[in-house]
What we know:
By secondary structure, this protein is α+β, with helices and mostly antiparallel strands. The protein has helices at 51-65, 75-83; strands at 7-9, 14-19, 22-31, 34-41, 69-71.
Amino acid sequence: MENKKAVNNKEKRRFEIVEEGMTSLAAYEISDGVMELYHTEVPARLEGRGIGSALAKAALDYAQENGLEVIPSCPFIAAYIERHPEYQELVVA
């Protein structure tokens, strides 16, 4: 997959990548300096293209750049953080 750019749709509180007319997303809530990443969704036809990972990276980079701590309540995001230890310092202890 070419490097897709995730867009932060702040109004809908989610990072999005649109491909083939379908929207993949990583949903979040931000409160008191903490970003909870609670849902990641990639349409079945788009799975296996690295879109979920691109969304996770975009969300975690945003948290890092904005001094936010992270609660990875979405299992996909939690697994991404396990595979990318550079983001583990963001996780709320």
